[in-house]
From TrEMBL:
Record's protein name: Protein usg
Organismal lineage: Bacteria, Pseudomonadati, Pseudomonadota, Alphaproteobacteria, Hyphomicrobiales
Organism: Aureimonas altamirensis DSM 21988
Amino acid sequence: MISRVADPAFQKMLSGFSATTAEVLYHMPDHPDFLQSFLWQFEDIAPQFPRLHRFLDHWRTEVEATIHSVSVMHQGLIRPRELRFGSEHRLQ
């Protein structure tokens, strides 16, 4: 019997999840003049980014580093595509 249930990853895409990359620049207390970088790739929902916000809230309360800045790159995985037709060739 063939299963007609969609792949869970595809179901997540349909519900709005897509590839997200966040770069967090931060300072450690013992080296305040040294700017460090943390790069993280994950799936999240734009433009709210709930997973990223949970992560940053955790960072602010549990990590001793001070966040300097956060850059977010987001790419929708499902989007309309352009369709182009080439010239038609008929076999005789």
